[in-house]
Amino acid sequence: MTGPDTAVSMNASDRDIDAALREMTLEEKAALTAGESFWSTVGIERLGIPPVWMTDGPNGARGATLAGGGRPLTSACMPCGAALGATWDSALVERIGALIGEEARTKGCRVLLAPTVNLHRSPLGGRNFESYSEDPLLAGVLAAAYVRGVRSQGVAATVKHFAGNESEFERMTMNAIIDERALRELYLLPFELAVRDGGALGVMTAYNRLNGVYCSDNEELLRDILRSEWGFEGFVVTDWGACGSTAAAMRAGVDLEMPGPGRFYGDALVEAVKAGEVDETSVDDAVRRLLRVFARVGALDDPVHRVPASIDRPEHRALAREAAASATVLLKNDGALLPLDAGSIRTLAVIGPNAARVEIMGGGSAHLSPHYETSPLQALQDRLGGRLALLHERGVDVSTLAPVLTGPDLTTPDRQPGLSLEMFDGHDFTGSVVERSHRPGTELTFFDPEATRVRPKFSVRAAGRFTPTASGLHTFSLAQLGRARLLIDGVVVLDGMAEPPPPGTSFLGLGSAELTASVDLKGGHAIDLVIEFANTGARALSGVRVGCRRPSDPDMLDRAVSAASRADAAVLVVGTDSEWESEGHDRVSMNLPGMQDDLVERVLAANPRTVVVVNAGSVVTMPWADQARAVLQIWFGGQEMSNALVDVLFGDADPGGRLPTSIPWCLEHNPSYGNFPAENGRVRYGEGVMVGYRWYDTRRLPTRFPFGHGLSYTNFEIGEPRLSAQTFTPGDVLSVDVPVTNTGARAGHEVVQCYVAPPSSRMTRPSKELKAFAKIWLERGQASLVRLSLDDRSFAFWDDGDCRTTDAAGPLSPWIQPDTTAARTGWTIEAGTYQLHIGRSSADIRRVLSLDVVTEIRTSAGRVDR
């Protein structure tokens, strides 16, 4: 990097940064607090400060692009957040973080917008697939590991979304009402661990309000808790478009408004300083924090012009495959149906809507273009080759939106794959063409403010030829963020310009619902498609999505059942996709979409030797689970999901996953039921601290499969644990040594879980809570000692104080006797006899020990010191 003597170097000290700050004008400092483009910060050339580029995560570094945008980069696609949660393996997740950090560097980016650590409060949460767990300790430990891995590559991880963003419904304005105890014990803990134990350098604010205050304006959240209590020294960035104020956000401690150009920072911040609404020293503090982070990761030595690359590394493939197998949860295996013996199978039926599709990631900002894709059917064909016959049937259709047109059926007028695009200045498709480009399919996204700044108003005409493979009614759809229409052979079929559709869930929840129209087409006869689009009414992000639902096949289900009945065994792959599970909207049902439950039940009846594979990022009801002999949950498992599935099916890999979230019998049993997603602009976290297994265990409600559950292909014995002390005094660290022996015939994974059950308390507490865990690999007959550690926080709860002792309405009634010992808020440890439950899940407890906590402590600080 070149620049004057005041340029900030990679090894910049506070003195260097302060010197650079003294050289900056107010306008330059304010410019640094707002993005320059959708993905980059502002550079100051005269001071040698380059723009810093950012990329979405958390399952891969996409680079400065979005799905449907032009010239997409390909990336390594790792298992989704819920799948990483299912690994229960912090060392593995740290390696994945390092891989994604390395990918971010190949994309020219120094900031990764990940990990997502919001909790699985409801099975319907739209971004559950992107988050780790319903349990804050599991989520926090894995988040800290991920952050360490990312940071090891010179990339700043940005933990999101801070805080209370457990649903997508009306997320831009929703008021999350969370009591202080639940906030401290559950929803803030993953962020705290990512900051304190992981060393996170970035935190992203959520869109929503938290107890009435927008998170980007929330001084208690950002200034008091994040910075003062946790000692966070990194930068705070808004979610894209989440900043809604200037002075309030600056007071709270927001350092960077994204995307650029800024609306409330940048020029608006200069005016606020000049008007006396913001002190210039606050701007200095924000810039100082940004430059410190950029210096620590080496971004200040980066060139101004990046050269992003797509590099498919063999070691990345291997790690992705290992992670997908480690995340695979064997929920059931009656009669040891798994692993399958390929030598005893002559015909294998491969059935289901997700058998030949590639559903490896959720939708929204987590979506990327993978280096390669392999479906379960293709992976089975590659592995088994000509050794046995494969019968494939889809069975049912589960698409929520009409599928985008792409592939060999869609060509440009000059016979190239995809669509040809022409861009015009203005919204009326007139004048000379200012830009020509190509897109592979009929989802067109425009988001680069560099283009829209040059052409704030533009229109696009995309042309191609579609050749249907079958005759019959084809239902075309159109969704838009802007204004669009579809022409077939020169006739307007769908007109979102003249009659804009109502709001819907497209384009991250910012776009419209679908318009649809049916057209009778003849198989093999090409038609001319033209999509006309203008970014009318849209801002940084705009686009149009055209889909086509092919003629229905009424015999699909019957053919699938027939194939299963003729086979020696069947693999049935059901699930969801990136449209059912996506940023921008929550799921509407916990059931499998479409008629998949009917498909499963009929296939199981036709062939009991059926392995049901659930390819979904979140949990589903599984009403057929009792009928099935073997059930695997493979989540959205990343680019190697299908190969890892075959590894597990045939015993080349042990299913290493354990559930990171409970699977209830029905949605109505979930503790958030009735308080999810929201009413009248408020989402009430009415279940308090009773989230997930805490609710089911305390209320003695059975689950379909409990938190922490997962089988192996071998067996383990958990021996009698040994404590480092028989009593615990606050300030100590207690060791619990647990002997574990592999008593089975194969090597495999075991996850040892420690839950702490409190004594009788003056506060309502969960019957037990996960406080330590460890994953180990043992060879056949091998024994090992697992050491778990418990500290103050393992026994503490957050006491929010007795409100009667601070009642401002007047003197307390003589008839009320408040508990004056509970006047202060803070972490509290009650003396008494606790129980340590050691087991394989929250419901499978193998050993119980008693432990006396001999001293009660209460602190008004934000933590019980470790």
Report on the structure:
It is a single chain. The protein is an alpha/beta fold. The chain folds into 3 domains: 54-63 and 75-253 and 273-285 and 298-397 and 554-713, Glycoside hydrolase, family 3, N-terminal domain (TIM Barrel), CATH 3.20.20; 407-549, Sandwich (Jelly Rolls), CATH 2.60.120.260; 714-858, Immunoglobulins (Immunoglobulin-like). Helices cover 21% and strands 25% of the residues. The chain contains 18 helices and 42 strands. Strands 14, 15, 16, 18, 20, 21 and 23 form a 7-stranded antiparallel sheet that branches. Strands 10-27-26-25-11-13 form a 6-stranded mixed sheet, with helices on both faces. Helix 4 crosses helix 5. It is globular, with a radius of gyration of 28 Å.
